[in-house]
Amino acid sequence: MFNVIPLAFASLMAFIDTFVLSLLKGYSLGLIKWRAVVPLGMLLYSLHPYIFLKSLEFESMTVMNLLFDVISDISVTLMGLFYFKEKLSSIKRVGIVFAFIGIVLLSYDSLNGNGDK
């Protein structure tokens, strides 16, 4: 059975990651002049341990870390491609497809219905 709760926690952490990295990229390109970008990023990243801790009530550390990493990598990549107009080779695009497949596979409960905790 597909378990959306760990996916939601991982997506929230990935959203924070994508938002902060986009702010920093915008600042480095001169698109954002606001000097509070770094302190804001630090404040937002300070939420990660709490979110991760709560996610462990629903899934194992291994799966949660993988879900967060893959979702974050994909969302940051998409932000780079579509907003910042960065380029990506064909082989790297194939890697993104495999990453999506990994998210789906990691979001399914184990056969006993309790995840891998």
TrEMBL record:
Keyword hit for Transmembrane: yes
Coiled coil (UniProt feature): none
Name of the protein this chain belongs to: EamA domain-containing protein
Keyword field: Membrane, Transmembrane, Transmembrane helix
GO cellular component: membrane
Ranges that cross the membrane: 6-24, 36-53, 65-84, 91-108
SUPFAM superfamilies, per the entry: Multidrug resistance efflux transporter EmrE (SSF103481)
Key word Membrane present: yes
Domain EamA: start-end pairs: 8-107
Organism of origin: viral metagenome
